[in-house]
Design goal:
- The protein is of the alpha+beta class.
- The chain folds into three domains: 7-53 and 176-435, Neutral Protease, domain 2 (Orthogonal Bundle), CATH 1.10.390; 63-169, Immunoglobulins (Immunoglobulin-like, Sandwich), CATH 2.60.40.10; 441-520, SH3 Domains (SH3 type barrels), CATH 2.30.30.40.
- It contains 13 helices and 26 strands.
- Helix 5 crosses helix 6 and helix 7 (337-347) crosses helix 8.
């Protein structure tokens, strides 16, 4: 799965430090009754004198030149490249052949995983050059994207010549940027922190380097390239790279495994919609420029962890709370997630870890981003109680080869997943779950009024036109497929729950649960 496209929105991720990974807590919270002391959060490895370089780049138009190629009478001349960011790059060169006319001229752009874009060049008769202009409408391509380019040219005799790949950056000629580089990261930014550029470069380098070994140990491998982080000062400047600016108030960038980049917007210090009453939020008057800049270091390491997931494991596997939990836990400042969850235990319950735990719904503490606290809390619990970093590596490597996180936990712990989950819930002050809470099918009583025997078929009623099937028996569960009126379904299992009969059915190969009313009709 190398090269699989990853495009994770930072709309929630960039807000994690404001809602869940708290820099400054507003309230002290006592542990819930019976709960243990908080397990220590992971800390960066102590390091001294992290080496980095800092320079100013961009801000002026430059034309770069690269060598051509020649073979079998077909000649590709020197290539000139000019960045017209945010509207692409212009590549031009001359080509000639002793064999006949030039037929095809294609510019290829190759990224960190070998994925490629291609642009057919057009011939400009006046200058006798072939010109390719990728991203001429912006196409969401961020400044400082790094890639190799090469030409492939074919003449009328069928002779084909390629130039050697050349590494180039998509520079921004419209404004100067700071560029910091250390052994395992590159960071670009502009429009803020001009008087503390060395401090930003040094802290960013420290954040990445001091968490690098933890990621290596936890994922069982090294990322194959040096990831890049690009930070824009404002949303409207970031959206210059789109032909149609993005209007969302919460859009804060994205992370792309194809490009090997994280693109983010500096936190603007405002409270995101839906988080106005969050009891953990830092007061707005305390959200200084320094506070906003500090968000960069964790967000960068969080997003770099997503790049590791794709590069080392082949993907971000599992439910949202798991792969975002990994990104949080392996980041620079995962925050005091246990404190938030313990307070929630006094106010509400949380779903089972076998369910989808979202990030956008506001919880009883006035905050959202629940998945971003549940994930690192459970991962930290496993790390502390079930074998340390080797356990996290075993789970991560298992997902690489098709073993689910749940299966790996059961193998490591030697007990059903629900028992491990209940240990974690009890640690936080939540009531343990029963098997019926997690698997309602296990709690079914005999059907009250069976309409058919197991193995028989039933014809769906004529209305409604679409009949949904569900993951589990019971109300308020997620649909996992749909059938259509008049179709024949096979009964696989049945039982009653809270006075209602439910049937597990096979509908065109899709298996799920339907209520008796769905099968009988109005």
């Amino acid at each position: 799965m190398k090269g699989t496209r990853l495009s994770i929105s930072l709309a929630v991720a960039a807000l994690v430090l404001g809602a869940a990974a708290i820099a400054a807590l507003a309230l002290p919270v006592a542990a819930a009754p019976g709960a243990q002391n908080n397990i220590p959060t992971p800390t960066p490895a102590p390091m001294e004198d992290v080496a980095y370089t800092l320079e100013v780049v961009g801000g002026e138009e430059q034309t770069l030149t690269f060598p051509g190629a020649e073979s079998d009478g077909l000649t590709i001349g020197e290539t000139s490249v000019t960045s017209t960011y945010p509207r692409g790059m212009i590549f031009s060169m001359q080509a000639a052949s002793d064999n006949g006319e030039i037929q095809d001229v294609i510019l290829f752009m190759e990224y960190v995983h070998g994925t490629r874009d291609r642009v057919n060049a057009e011939y400009d008769r006046e200058s006798d050059t072939w010109i390719a202009h990728p991203w001429d409408t912006g196409e969401g391509r961020p400044a400082w994207s790094r890639f190799n380019f090469y030409w492939r040219v074919r003449d009328s005799a069928g002779v084909t010549v390629e130039t050697d790949p050349q590494l180039i950056d998509y520079a921004d000629p419209t404004r100067p940027w700071f560029r910091a580089e250390s052994e395992h990261m590159v960071l670009y930014w502009f429009g803020f922190g001009e008087d503390m550029a060395d401090e930003i470069a040094q802290t960013a380098a420290y954040a990445v380097e001091s968490t690098h070994q933890r990621r290596m140990d936890g994922f069982g491998g090294e990322i194959s390239y040096k990831p890049i982080a690009v930070v824009y000062p404002q949303r409207d400047i970031l959206t210059e790279m789109y032909a149609n600016p993005i209007a969302s108030e919460t859009f804060a960038g994205y992370t792309s495994s194809d490009l090997g980049m994280s693109v983010q917007v500096l936190h603007d210090g405002s409270t995101p919609p839906g988080n106005e009453e969050c009891i953990w939020s830092t007061p707005e008057e305390e959200r200084t420029m320094e506070w906003r800049i500090e968000r960069i270091y964790h967000t960068t390491t969080h997003e770099f962890t997503h790049l590791w997931q794709y590069d080392v494991l082949g993907g971000a596997f599992g439910k949202l709370w798991w792969f975002e939990g990994q990104a949080e836990w392996f980041g620079f400042a995962p925050g005091q997630y246990d404190k938030r969850l313990r307070k929630l235990a006094e106010l509400q319950d949380i779903p089972s870890l076998t369910e989808d735990i979202g990030a956008n719904l506001t919880q009883a503490d006035g905050c959202y981003a629940l998945a971003y606290d549940v994930g690192p809390s459970f991962i930290n619990f496993l790390h502390t109680n079930y074998g340390g970093i080797e356990t996290l590596q075993q789970i991560a490597q298992g997902t690489r080869y098709g073993t689910s996180m749940y299966e790996s936990v059961e193998e490591i712990a030697g007990k059903p997943f629900i028992e491990v989950e209940n240990e974690w819930r009890t640690y936080l002050g939540f009531e343990p779950l029963s098997l019926a809470d997690v698997d309602p099918a296990s709690a079914l009583e005999p059907a009250i009024a069976p309409i058919a025997e197991i193995g028989e078929t039933v014809l769906l009623p004529s209305t409604p036109p679409i009949a949904y099937i569900y993951e589990k028996p019971g109300p308020n569960v997620l649909s996992n497929g749909q059938c259509f009126s008049g179709m024949e379904v096979t009964i696989l299992d049945m039982g009653s729950l809270d006075g209602i009969d439910y049937y597990q059915v096979d509908c065109m190969g899709m298996v799920g649960w339907m209520s008796r009313d769905q099968l009988v009709g109005p």
